[in-house]
Write a structure and sequence with these properties.
With 174 residues, this protein is an all-beta fold. Helices cover 0% and strands 45% of the residues. It has no helices and 13 strands. Strands 1, 2, 3, 4 and 5 form a five-stranded antiparallel sheet that branches. It is globular, with a radius of gyration of 17 Å.
Length: 174
C-alpha cells in the first residue's frame, strides 16, 4: 500500500491506495491542488518524508501538474506512476499474541525511528487472518513498526537497507 496525500498550502488531504493502487480523496473544497506521494512535511516546516513524487510522476514539486477542483467536481488523474529509480524495500512478517496465536486485524504503523521527529511513512496497515503483513518503506531509513491490537502492543526496529522478510512481532499487554 502507498500513502497518498494532497496538499493545498498548509492543509492536507490524504488517502491510502488499495491493492490495485486506486485511491479516492473526498470532501475537498474547490481549489488548486498538488497531488503527491510522501509529499507531507512535519508541522509545515520539516523535510519531506522519504522520497516524494508528484503528479504526473515527477520528483520536484515545481514540475508537478496543478489540479483544479471546482464545486462538485470529481476528477480522475489517470495513471500516476512512481519513478522506477526511487528505491523502496519490502517488509513482511507475522504478528502473534503472547501464546503464539495469529493476531488477525492488528494495525501496523510504519514510523521513522531515529533522532528528530517520528515521521509516519504510512498506515495503519492491517494483518490478515493469519497475522501476516507486507508493506513497502523507503530504502535507507531507520524504521519502527508499531503494532496495536485490543489493548496489546508490539514493535520491531530496523534500517531499511534491504528487504526484511519474516519479521516476527509478539504483542504484549499495554
Amino acid at each position: 500500500d502507498t500513502f497518498d496525500q494532497v496538499r493545498e498550502g498548509e492543509y492536507g488531504y490524504s488517502a491510502k491506495s488499495d491493492a490495485d493502487g486506486m485511491f479516492e480523496i473526498t470532501k475537498m473544497p474547490p481549489g488548486r491542488y498538488v497531488v503527491g506521494v510522501n509529499a507531507r512535511v512535519v508541522a509545515g516546516k520539516g523535510p519531506d518524508l522519504g522520497p516524494a513524487f508528484f503528479f504526473p510522476g515527477v520528483q520536484v514539486k515545481e514540475k508537478a501538474e496543478t489540479v483544479t477542483l471546482g464545486p462538485g467536481d470529481q476528477l480522475g488523474l489517470g495513471d500516476f506512476a512512481l519513478a522506477p529509480d526511487v528505491p523502496f524495500v519490502e517488509v513482511s512478517g507475522t504478528v502473534v499474541t503472547e501464546d503464539g496465536s495469529a493476531a488477525a486485524g492488528a494495525r501496523i504503523y510504519a514510523l521513522r525511528d531515529g533522532p528528530g521527529p517520528a515521521y509516519q511513512f504510512g498506515g495503519p496497515f492491517m494483518t490478515d487472518a493469519q497475522g501476516r503483513f507486507t508493506l513497502a518503506v523507503p530504502k535507507g531509513e531507520p524504521v519502527m513498526l508499531k503494532v496495536l491490537r485490543r489493548y496489546t502492543i508490539g514493535e520491531a526496529s530496523f534500517v531499511s537497507d534491504a528487504d526484511h522478510p519474516g519479521l516476527w512481532i509478539v504483542l504484549k499487554p499495554m
